[in-house]
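Reviewer 2 asked us to include a model.

Predict the structure of this chain.
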Amino acid sequence: MKTRKFTRRQVIATTSAGMLGTMISWPLSSIGSGSYAKVKLAINGGEKVHPGSWPNWPVWDQSAEPGIIEMLRSGRWWRGSGEHVEEFEKRYAELMSAKRCVATASGTTALITALGVLGVDAGDEVLVSPYTFIATYNAIFYHKALPVFVDSDPETFLLDPKKIEARITDRTSAILPVHIYGLPADMDSINKIAKNHKLKVVEDACQAWLSEYRGKRTGTLGDLGCFSFQNSKHLPAGEGGAILGNDDDIMDHCHSAHNCGRPYGNMKVTPGYPLRGGNFRMQQSQALILLSQMKRIEKDNDIRLSNALYLDKKLKDIPGIVPYKLADGATRAVYHLYPFRYIKEKFNNIPKEKFINALVAEGIPATGGYGQQNKDGLFEEAFNSRGYKRLFSESRLKKWREENHLPGNDQLCNEAVTFYQSILLGSKKDMDDIVNAITKIYENKDSLT
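Predicted model (structure tokens):
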């Protein structure tokens, strides 16, 4: 079966599709009751379960406009001459229970900055989850380091800590766990391994604003944590990112590195630039948008959590539908996407893509999540470059290719189905429509074969 891959923007587009239809109310069904038996599926010309719309995203707050207009008229557009980025950094650190925050231009530049400050350099190896957005790997490539994949646990959608140590070499310098979809990774296990092997830990929390592990906010549990504020995110500003940390010296270096290498804080003031850096600064306009959006994130996350837990309870009773499992120690997820696994053998071996198409036809936008990105062309493009051939021996790259067989991740990519986060801002009736649509497909699966 060919696995479908989706970018963030395709997820948003899919979420906006298929919203119109003839109004109809479907009663709740008990699995096996036969109440949906022989009801024509929408993909076969029947009436859809959910003919209405879904909440839009992002949501603009017009009360933010006077402050943005004032800033634009003042000419204080960049952080060097304005105060709003600094205000956002302070407020976001407080929200996330972190000591310090450095705001960046994107989640990608946050990852690039964090990895560089913690010493990841050319020829190093970084252990990373294969089930993530491609920016996670690109940040490693930026430093001319080698992304080394740790297989996924299909049940949690996350890096499997039990498989970390087998991937460590004398060149490994860091672990980059990803709290994908806002599902917290098992940070106790990851940090213990990192400590034993003297490795740095950078949390990719780019989809995990306010998720919690043992009651603590993700992004504050490693050496540094990175976030994204891209347009699809729970805290959106079009683009933008942040680094969180609790060590003042490290955060001073993060600030310097994201600001062209200018000394900052307790760093020794020099006539020139004390370290390498780039222009990864957040703009004033982004900060003002984020300060406005912060007013709603906690309430929205509470709604998403309530609806996700409701779906967990209902969907697990449908044969072949397996909701995600929280990792050991995870106490709160935030659901940038709501994920479950589709076991096609319970649906007469109907391919996942056909199941998704049937679900979309019923008015329930869904995607297949991430594909097998560890097999994308960018890896061979990098390894065949002059730089990587100088940095890594032919035998090391050969071994990388041999180890790039990840059965857990392959299974996850083949089975994963996701709902975009704004769907979880709907009503309980909307959630019932999701359950009813899947039930309808299950009870009429013979008509899809």
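The chain has two domains: 8-58+295-370+411-448, 62-291. The CA atoms of residues 77 and 407 lie 49 Å apart. We have added this to the supplementary material.
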